[in-house]
User: Fold this.
Amino acid sequence: MNAADIPVLSIMLAIPMVAAALCLFVRAELARPIALGATLANFILGVVLWISYDPAGAQWQFTESAQLFGPIGWKLGIDGISLTLIMLSVFLMPICIGASWNSIQKRVGEYMAAFLLMETLMIGVFAAQDLLLFYIFFEAGLIPMYLIIGIWGGQDRIYASYKFFLYTLLGSVVMLIAMLWMIQFAGTADIPTLLNTDFPVQAQTLLWLAFFASFAVKMPMWPVHTWLPDAHVQAPTAGSVILAGVLLKMGGYGFLRFSLPMFPEASANFIPLVFGLSMVAVVYTSLVALVQQDMKKLIAYSSVAHMAIVTLGLFTFNQQGIEGAIIVMLSHGLVSGALFLCVGVIYDRLHTREISRYGGISVNMPKYALLFMLFTMASVGLPGTSGFVGEFLSLAGAYKVSTWATLIATTGIILGAGYMLYLYRRIAFGPQVNADAAAMQDIDGREMWLLAPIAVVVLWMGVYPETFLAPIRRDVATIVDRIERAAPAGDSKLMAVDPTTARFRVVHEPKKDVAEGSH
Amino acid sequence: MELNASLSLVRPELILSFSALALLLLAAWIDQAGRLISILAVAALGAAAAFTASSLGSGSSASAFDGLMVIDAFGNFSKLLIYIAAAVSLTIAPRFLEKAGAMRAEYPVLIVLSCVGMGVMVSATDLISLYIGLELQSLSAYVLASFVRSDGRSAEAGLKYFVLGGLASGMLLFGASLVYGFAGSTNFSAIGLAMDKEVGLGLIFGIVFILSGLAFKISAAPFHMWTPDVYEGAPTPVTAFFASAPKVAAIALLMRVVLEAFGSQVLVWQQIIIAVALMSIIIGAVGAIGQQNLKRLMAYSSINNVGFILIGLATGTEQGIAAMLVYLTIYVAMTLGGFVCLMQLKDKDGNYREEFADIAGLSKTRPALAAAFAIFMFSLAGIPPLFGFWGKLVVFNAAVAAGLLPLAVIGISASVIGAFYYLKVVKVMYFDDAADVIAESDDKVLVWTGGILAAANSPLGYFAIPALGVWTAVAAKALF
Assistant:
């Protein structure tokens, strides 16, 4: 494979870095095109990566390895799961830059530099194959995000930036101790090797909890989600897009890459915890979203609910559930990103996020209303959009493990329809009570270019998800094989039997169980 | 013959002693020679550093003066760090002292003399030579703290440092005499042999007193009370010096005493070190939160960092010692950088400013300075990808390897409290409205030093990891 010759991943990390350094020293008029150019170049490289990735090839492709920093190995490489998440990052980045084109007017160079740095770190997280390198990329993202929220954010930006930073830092530091222990146990920080290391079951519990502390905050799971609404509301539009689109996916990626395959037994033991928290999150945050007056807060709470479906899907220990969780992550990255952009579009015009200040804008902004509706429906999970595929697969997977958890989590879809449609109705339909809202211009060419590509991908993923499932199928299967030994029995007891004899079997099965247990 | 061999081993100390005397004479004959003598003093430190550096990687060790001192890789590494830190403190000082009307020739001479003392401290293998080195360093430091005589704060800092330092020296001496009485020798290896058999109550008392005295010198909690006052009162270049070189020397001394003299009875002192480490981390972090003065903030930050360094000592392993040396090296770069940034905070009339309110919105008026300051703050907080993270990582790695998991977990969780006030500095500089009191810096030396130190703390510093790893490993081996 010629990929070994060209270090594509290193180049993808280097381009935004160099552009970030450049942006610091040039005028605003120059910083914008530099940032856009760099992110587009990275997107093109991402497409090259996608095309040349061989789903049937080696598990880890485009691998690079150099011992530059002593014990921290510069080891990069991707599997299908990393590939899709890297694609998501490089796809959203040019859109973020475009979204900030006019709305950011102060300290443009520093703003673009922070975003470009963020891109490097996001790609780094998904491509790192060394545990310490992963941690560095994972934690370093706090600095640019802290600055983005704190400098360019809204009214309460300082509180939100502190909360974001300290919350996530506290979650992550204990994970570092766990990582150090693992490296000493296994004698290597190489992630592919660690993936096949069997840690002692007792140690797994503590290690799992340490990783859980970090990823649950990042995800975010109820009850450690409270930083997210604050951060989202205060961050500038593009900051919210990146936060919802990619940063939250790091938590899910972490569960998938570390918690599940490295600690299968502990993961199985903690299923009740994860499912319990997910169930609460789905119902509780959906209800909270229902009463929000602030558009961004509503979408932020809906993110927590969607991420709960992801955790539910991940801990099903079966192919469907995990594949579904990944698709929900991708779909949510696109849809919530797009919804934040939609909010940004009208926020730029009216400078308020209060829902009641809008109303009936489908009359004066028909194109906007159409796109907004598409993303609303995708968020609800309407068949034909990306949201449906992911949620259906995760819930189908979860059903095999716990009927009750699935039942409660599924109410999230109904509640989701409730708060999203209610939001849409209040903004787009109804009488035009606010004169200024009624006078808003429809979206212009730039905004169209931001939203249309996302709309295309959302529909693509909804109509033909195979494109996105193909690269991850084999890697999910690898994980499922790895964790099979700890997989829970499940309570639905699915059987492929002739319906006429099924009744007979069900009657006899419990007896068999009792007999086995008594020995 | 024996004396000649010994003398040839302590060449760096000899170079420094003679240059200190020569410079003192020079100062008597030439008026207003502060700057010239500073340059010569830096040159002397450079020569001493060059001698030390030539034997950096070698693991050989030689005893000098009939077992009073030892020249080994550990001492050499510490000395190199001390000489470099002292040279930087000398280089950045002239402008500041001239402004305060105190650029006298005694300043470089005192720093050089204190470096001789520190050289003896890190090489001492006997309680007597330990005490001589420590006092030579301390006495110079007392004078340096009150160097700007006309400033009440400086005089107060000197007095406070002297009185409390005297108390600490007393405790150390008392402990040393107890150890001598119960172990029968002042020599570290002899004490180690005596402790091999059994540790009586008298010896334990002695150890506790010695550790208390040294904890004062490294400003570890609960003996840290003098630090904020002295750091705030002393002239800023002197504070930069206090926070770097003497701290390295005192910590290196602590390592050697603990491991060479008391190394056979780890359990006796391990609890003390763990308690002191955790207290320092927490008090350093919590105490800094309410501070309005940036120098006081740096003082608490140094208490906090000493706590992290002591985690390495608590392990009592070779890996832990190597980790401490790595952390010390990075700490010196971070803290010197922080003070270099502080020294650039001058208003339009040329007065030095050191309050939080003065740096509000600094990123708008002085973006490069604010960025450098932010790098040092994030680095001190140990946030990756800055180099300060590596120091924390190796120390915690050593703790995990030694099985001290609860210590590692508590320590690293407490580092989040510390992150709060480092973030506050960044917040004030980046998020607040510009106060616009800080003028453009006219001191090129400070700009360049700050730039180099910022680069060292940036991710570029990671390229130094392999070399640092080798040197510290060799140095740590010398203690076992």
Notes: The beta strands of chain B are 62-64, 69-71.
